[in-house]
Structures are given as C-alpha cells and as structure tokens.
Specification:
Strand content: 5-15%
Helix content: 25-40%
GO molecular function: heme binding; lactoperoxidase activity; metal ion binding
Bound molecules: protoporphyrin IX containing FE, 2-acetamido-2-deoxy-beta-D-glucopyranose
Main location: secreted
Structural class: mainly alpha
Distance between the termini: 20 Å
InterPro entries: Haem_peroxidase, Haem_peroxidase_sf, Peroxidase_pln, Peroxidases_AS, Peroxidases_heam-ligand_BS, Secretory_peroxidase
Order of helices and strands: EEEEHHEHHHHEHHEHHHH
Strand order of the largest sheet: 3-7-6
Shape: globular
Number of domains: 2
EC number: 1.11.1.7
Organism: Tetracentron sinense (Spur-leaf)
Number of strands: 7
Length: 357
C-alpha cells in the first residue's frame, strides 16, 4: 500500500486574517494534503552511541565522489516541484534518528510479517514528499555509484541541503552511516515527543538521545517551517480547562482564527495549519519571536517560552538569528550521530524502502 506517495499535493489556500489589539494582520494559510502517512514513538533504547569518531567527511571519496552533488541536484528539483518537501524531510530525519538511531529505519515499508516504523499508530502525519525526496536521491545515486551510499547518509545529506535551500544554515555532513535491519512500529511509541508532554518529559527524552536542553530548544526551531494537523492543537482552542476556554498562554485572536479551519464538528482530519504563522515557508528565527507573542501553535512550542528551563534559550534565539543558526547546525550534527551503525553493522540498502533480500 503506497500511502506515502504524495504525487499531487493539493493546495487549498484560504486566506484568513484577524486583527489584534495592535492592528497587526496575520495571514494563515490552511492547506489540505490528500496523501499522508504516519509517524510514531517508542520506548527504551540503547542506541545512543555517538559515531563522530568513525564517520568521516571523505567516506565516499573513492566509492562515490559526487555523492553530495548528485543529492543536491535531486533535492533542488524536488523542492521546486513541492515546496513542502523541506519540512517533510526534516521531520522524517528527526523521527528516523529518535527511533533506532539514524539508520533509515523510518523508510522501510511494512510487509506481511512486519508492521514497520512508518506505519506506527501515530501515522497520519509523515509527509509523502519527504519519503519521495529520499527515494529519488537514492535512485539517482544508484545510477552512478551502485550499492555505495547508505540510505541513512542520503537522509542526512538531503535534509541538510533542504534546510539550507529554504533559508537555513549549512553544515558539513560526516558520512559512513549504515542502514538498519530493524523497523518496527512497536518501537516508535515512547521514542518521539508528543504535544502533551511537559518540558521535563521532553528534556528527559532528548537527554536519553544524548541531546542537551539547548540542543532541544534549537532543534524545536525546525517548527519554523511545516504544518500541524488540527488535532494536535485543538485542545488549546476549545474547552482548554475549567477556567479558560482558550489556552491563556496563546494569543486569543490567533486561537480564534484557528477555529474556523478546525471546527469542533465535522473536522476534516486532513486540514493543517502552519507551524510558524508569520513566515511559514522560510527557515528563520521567527518561530522563537512568535513564542514571545503567544503565537506558538503546539502546546509544547509555547511551553518552551513559558518554562524557566528553556525560556532563556528561546529569548537568545529570538533576538539573534545567527545564534539560532549556529546552535541549530551544531544540534543537527549531534542528532545525525544518534545511534548510528557503522563498519559491518547493518547494511547498505539497494532500495531505501526495503531491506536487502
Ligand atoms: C520538541 C518536541 C517536538 C514535538 C512535541 C513535535 C511535534 C510535532 C507535531 C505534533 C507536528 C505536526 C505533525 C502533523 O500534524 O502532521 C510536528 C511537525 C513538524 N516537526 Fe516537530 N515536534 C518536536 C520536535 C521537532 C524536532 C526536533 C524537529 C526536527 C529537528 C521537528 C520537525 C518538525 C517539522 C519539520 C514538522 C513539519 C512537518 C511537515 O510539515 O510535514 N520537530 N512536530
Ligand atoms: C576527499 O574529497 C574532498 C573534496 O574533493 C577533498 O577536499 C578531500 O581532501 C578528499 N579527502 C581525501 C582523503 O582524499
Ligand atoms: C496507519 O497506516 C495504516 C496502513 O499502513 C492504516 O491502515 C491506518 O489506518 C493508519 N492509521 C492512521 C491513524 O492513520
Ligand atoms: C498524551 O496523549 C496521548 C495520546 O495522544 C496519550 O496516550 C497520553 O496518555 C497523553 N500523555 C499525557 C502525559 O497526558
Ligand atoms: C487552566 O490553565 C491555566 C493556564 O495553564 C492554569 O493557570 C489554571 O490553573 C488552569 N485551571 C484549572 C481549573 O485547571
């Protein structure tokens, strides 16, 4: 079942606006994505090995010297066709690394005997364009250097390029990751953050992957692009708690604006809202400035600002985009080292969607 192929992203933009006390307008585009797949989370992992010492910048110098250029060409073409690709790929990279380590386990298709990672219960949200850009990159590589480049490295390099192409920082990628031999939906739950987690829960989860509080805040800046489905933020905008109808930490006008595309009754489960309401498709630090104004979309986004453990980092990244970029790049390199397999572990997959026969 090819639920992850997102061939014709249907864009249904509805321009809404609301004026706040200061007569500022915000534009919120709602978008419908007709083909979707899922994500997941899971528990207990001993996959926190940091592979920095063994990964290397010139790993493919002999076996595939043009690896970076080949991937870059595919990725830029794909981004022109589907601007949503960058966010989709970035989210997949994150999920891949948090579940079984960065080993492309998220790309494996389910079989009759194995329900794979990407078909975990929380799976209505893994974006088809993200899968597609990785599969296309790998197919291009196979024409020039068959069997050389792992899917895990493809994900890492392609994601780096996409972030940079939509305005974000660029960093050098160390290579030599091997593809995993395990992809199980049951390993997802518990390894991924959820919108109802507390900051303490998020910190422990990130720590368990070798990432600091600072890494976590910087990486959350990924929400400067991409979308969330209504159900992820609806508890904030309807019957929040016994005292407040709308989450009081949320800009009230913003919350009301979100109600029309996300009605309580007859909700269309495919409707999504931009994660970054002020510059949704550009990788910048507006996400952090939004948090200072109560314009965070997810409860966990907004809590990064309100919680004293993370507040200071939010402020410094809101103030200076270069600081955000530096921390983000450093944290992405660390994220790309989580649980990597090297040497003779795992394999180099021929087709990223399937274990080698
Ligand atoms: C800190 C805890 C985090 C939580 C609770 C969280 C939660 C979510 C949720 C609920 C969505 C919406 C999914 C949907 O409805 O389709 C989302 C989207 C996204 N997340 Fe996160 N996330 C977190 C951290 C991260 C990190 C660390 C990254 C990457 C480094 C990331 C990258 C993204 C991207 C790019 C999207 C947009 C995907 C798209 O438009 O297709 N998130 N996140
Ligand atoms: C690998 O290739 C890069 C780029 O061409 C070059 O800068 C580097 O020196 C090479 N490394 C080795 C060990 O040949
Ligand atoms: C997850 O994907 C499977 C197919 O792989 C599908 O049957 C199921 O309905 C999906 N679940 C959700 C919540 O979308
Ligand atoms: C968070 O939500 C999930 C379902 O989305 C639920 O299973 C879980 O119990 C909730 N966790 C907390 C801490 O409320
Ligand atoms: C409702 O939420 C607010 C803000 O999170 C909190 O201060 C308040 O105590 C909550 N009220 C109830 C009755 O739970």
């Amino acid at each position: 079942m090819m639920i992850w192929r997102c061939k014709d992203n249907l864009l249904v933009p509805a321009l809404l606006h609301f004026s706040m006390a200061k007569t500022i307008f915000f534009f919120l585009m709602m978008m419908m994505i007709p083909c979707i797949t899922g994500a997941g989370a899971s528990s207990n992992n001993n996959d926190n090995r940091v592979g920095e010492e063994l990964l290397s910048y010139d790993f493919y110098n002999k076996s595939c010297p043009n690896v970076e250029r080949i991937i870059h060409n595919v990725v830029s073409q794909k981004l022109l066709e589907s601007p949503t690709t960058a966010a989709g790929a970035l989210r997949l990279f994150f999920h891949d690394c948090f579940v079984e380590g960065c080993d492309a386990s998220v790309l494996i298709a389910s079989s009759e005997t194995n329900k794979a990672e990407r078909d975990a219960e929380i799976n209505e949200s893994l974006p088809g364009d993200g899968f597609d850009v990785f599969f296309r990159s790998k197919r291009a590589l196979e024409l020039q250097c068959p069997g050389a480049v792992s899917c895990a490295d493809v994900i890492t390099i392609a994601t780096r390029d996409l972030v940079n192409l939509v305005g974000g920082p660029r960093w050098e990628v160390q290579k030599g990751r091997r593809d995993g031999l395990v992809s199980k939906a049951s390993r997802v739950s518990g390894n991924l953050p959820q919108v109802n987690h507390t900051i303490s829960q998020l910190i422990s989860l990130f720590n368990s992957k070798g990432l600091t509080v600072l890494d976590m805040v910087a990486l959350s800046g990924a929400h400067t692009i991409g979308f969330s489905h209504c159900k992820e933020f609806m508890p904030r905008i309807y019957a929040y708690n016994q005292t407040f109808d709308i989450d009081p930490t949320m800009d009230q006008g913003y919350a009301r604006t979100l109600r029309s595309p996300c009605p309580k009754k007859d909700l269309d489960p495919l409707v999504v809202a931009f994660n970054d309401v002020s510059s949704p498709t550009t990788f910048d630090n507006a996400y952090f400035r939004n948090l200072q104004k109560g314009l965070g979309l997810l409860a966990t986004d907004q809590k990064l600002f309100s919680d004293p453990m993370t507040h200071g980092y939010v402020s410094s990244m809101a103030k200076d985009q270069q600081i955000f970029f530096n921390y983000f790049a450093a944290a992405m390199i660390k994220l790309g080292n989580v649980g990597v397999k090297m040497g003779t572990d795992g394999e180099v997959r021929q087709d990223c969607g399937f274990f080698n026969p």
